[in-house]
């Protein structure tokens, strides 16, 4: 790091924090000054350098002390990502350990931004075990610190988790206030977190005997926004905008999210098509129950990845099998599901087939419909 000039360090730290030059200036320093510092035309004064360090979450020595290595941001990002995955999978103890490790590493390396995020995640998990006044005050301070570094998603999630604790304690008004705070932080972003908020509002309204019409409408809208393809599109849009604005760190994270979703969608599409093929083989072999099981799985997968055509074909074939097996009620229910899926498909553009054996599966299903 000793060979990296101050100008480049400021620029790299700004991009890693996801800030434009105007955002880094923040009304305290002229944007022109930030630009001149990054081009090496002027050297930042101690006051300005301290301000920049605080804005990007780095210690001043990161910019001036050649003996100090840069923070291990890759390791920190790994610990934070693993902790989030563990939390979402229900392993709260494992998540707590990973976030605590991230917090300790961020503190040692002087990475204030990631330290604020890791500390908030730890406190949000701890709040479930102890929601005393002291703990609540610590969470509030952590939320404010994380918000300063732009961690809106984590702050909103912490409010949702706090609302769940308050709801469990029959503090309805306080829980609703926490959910309102979460919505304000999101400001229309992160539809998956907004889904958690809408679901919590419905749960609280049902328990209190309140009207659920508006929360139900919100849930319907968010349900569409949280479909895998919609989420992938949203992440790609975010990546493009962030990249155009020079926020490389934010752009990279969004692009990685989009890529992971696209890979998952492709894999599930292939799986749905393969299960349709297996259903065709089972039907030909007289194993009706196995065919029904495979088609139910295929239709569920197709619905998950919004492949409407495959969903309709699977459901129509499934309806025929139920009818052949004498399951008239199941056949009628499945036919109604197929009708609803067909109407959804009519409102959308025809999906592009992503699997090489779709024609084989389609032919098998067509034979199944004639057999049915």
Topology summary:
Blueprint: H1 6-16, H2 21-25, H3 31-38, H4 46-56, H5 61-64, H6 73-88, H7 92-109, H8 112-126, H9 133-148, H10 152-168, H11 172-186, H12 191-208, H13 213-225, H14 228-244, H15 248-284, H16 288-304, H17 308-324, H18 328-346, H19 358-371
How would you sum up this structure, described in words?
The protein is mainly α. The chain has three domains: 6-64, lambda repressor-like DNA-binding domains (434 Repressor (Amino-terminal Domain), Orthogonal Bundle); 73-248, Alpha Horseshoe (Serine Threonine Protein Phosphatase 5, Tetratricopeptide repeat), CATH 1.25.40; 263-347 and 354-371, Serine Threonine Protein Phosphatase 5, Tetratricopeptide repeat (Alpha Horseshoe). The chain has helices spanning 6-16, 21-25, 31-38, 46-56, 61-64, 73-88, 92-109, 112-126, 133-148, 152-168, 172-186, 191-208, 213-225, 228-244, 248-284, 288-304, 308-324, 328-346, 358-371. Helix 10 (152-168) packs antiparallel against helix 11 (172-186), helix 14 runs antiparallel to helix 15 (248-284) and helix 15 (248-284) runs antiparallel to helix 16 (288-304). The longest helix is centred in the C-terminal third of the chain and has 37 residues, at 248-284. Residues 350-372 have low confidence and may be disordered.
